[in-house]
Amino acid sequence: MAKMEAKLGMIFDSVGNFFSGNDHLPWCDRDIIAGCEREIAEAEKQSSDELMKECLLRLSWALVHSRQPEDVQRGIAMLEASLPGTSKPIQQREKLYLLAIGYYRSGDYSRSRDLVERCLMIAPDWRQAVTLRKTIEDRITKDGVIGIGIAATAVGLIAGGIAAAVTRRK
Questions:
Q1: Is 74 within the bounds of a domain?
Q2: Distance between CA atoms of 128 and 48, rounded to whole angstroms?
Q3: DSSP for 94-140?
Q4: Across residues 35-40, what is the average pLDDT?
Q5: Which of 34, 108, 124, 165 lies at 20 to 30 Å from 136 by C-alpha?
Q6: CA 32 to chain CA centroid, nearest Å
């Protein structure tokens, strides 16, 4: 009996996760973003390019992990602007990954998947990117299943309405 309850619990949890959209990506709050912005102000005073780049990357990370859509868009814009000047593969990988998260959070799953694939070309075994790719694919599948369900319901309602109209005419 306990085994059966445990199995049912696992089934309900997996169905609940499917429909709730749990993606296991961390979130960031406004306090962390404000702290990153203070770090940038301090780095400007020190005139250190390397420190400034590190601070900007931390701010970009915080922004794309924010719950606020405007923060996510700001993070995407910062990363897009800095990517062309990035020559080191590890920095490029990091920025591509963060961009993929930003686009995922903004609902552009196709663009997010493309970016994570570019990231995996640089580092094929990078676990974070592999996990993000799976999260994106799961989300695309979930949205497709929900879309099919909505379409099927609409077709059923239309067919039911036509059947009711035909029945009334007879």
A1: yes
A2: 30
A3: HHHHHHHHHHHHTT-HHHHHHHHHHHHHH-TT-HHHHHHHHHHHHHH
A4: 92
A5: 34
A6: 19
